[in-house]
Amino acid sequence: MPTPTTIQLLWGIQPRPKRGPKPALSLAAIVAEAIAIADAEGLANLSMQRLAEALGFTKMSLYRYVSGKEQLIALMLEAALGVPPDNAAANPDSPEEPWRGALRLWTETIFARFNAHPWATELTTGVRALGPNEMGWMESVLVALADTGLNGSERLDTIVLLTGHARSLAQQLKSVPGDDPTVQFNEQFTEMMTAAGDRYPAVRAAFAEEAAAAGGPPSSGGPNDALNFGIDRVLDGLAVLIARRAAG
Fold it and tell me: What is the pLDDT of residues 226-246, one digit of tens each?
């Protein structure tokens, strides 16, 4: 039987054998173990050999399910992203326009998925095969913006902006498993300012102002502060464009 393509694997449309013994492995089990390894050790440390050892099978046995690491990571990304949030799940008591609430929840959720699986940020760029979950994330934004007056290109560009914001922030927060990046930053920042704070008065003043507002020591502002600030600015810009279309 020919090796299934990545699209066939992602969408579950590969031909199934009609006869033969029940497979000892499953594609779902392979992908789940691969994700566990990547979460714990990083994507660079995931290999077909490492995965086979963790599953208790030979490397050659894995090739009955996937042709190699390229197909494997496509399936891993699809599983790690999971299904998008339901637009209707956005806070119904919020004074925001429905599209704003839906896009805010969408961005917060994808940021949480990136944080849970930091290696996934490396895989969401460039030309690649998309699975039903990732396609569902796109569909969710396009539906939320359907009645705003934005054209198809603008709605697609909104996906790029929101994904890029969530991905870049998640990449900045990558750290050794178990480490708190905020604590790490505070320690390093204090050391840098002690050594050369007088050379960067604007940096020192900005962090001092942030610390005074937060009632604590200087920090990176926290991931949620930066996330929400970026979301608000993107949504504010969209609101201006939507209002201009409605008036014009």
Answer: 999 999 999 999 999 999 999
Measured distance CA(139)–CA(111) in Å, rounded: 17
pLDDT digits (tens, 9 = 90+) for 173-227: 875 555 566 666 677 777 887 877 788 888 888 878 777 776 655 444 455 689 9
Question: What is each CA distance from 83 to 32, 73, 99, 110, 244, in whole angstroms?
Answer: 16, 17, 19, 10, 33
User: What are the backbone angles phi and psi of residue 176, rounded to the nearest 5°?
Assistant: -65, 135
Is residue 148 within a helix (H) or strand (E), and if so which, with residue range?
Answer: none
Number of H helices, E strands in the chain: 11, 0
Pinpoint the alpha helices (H) of 56-97: 59-62, 69-81
Question: How far is C-alpha 203 from the chain's CA centre?
Answer: 29
SS3 at position 183: helix
What the chain holds in terms of domains, given with CATH numbers, is 6-81 (1.10.10.60), 82-248 (1.10.357.10)
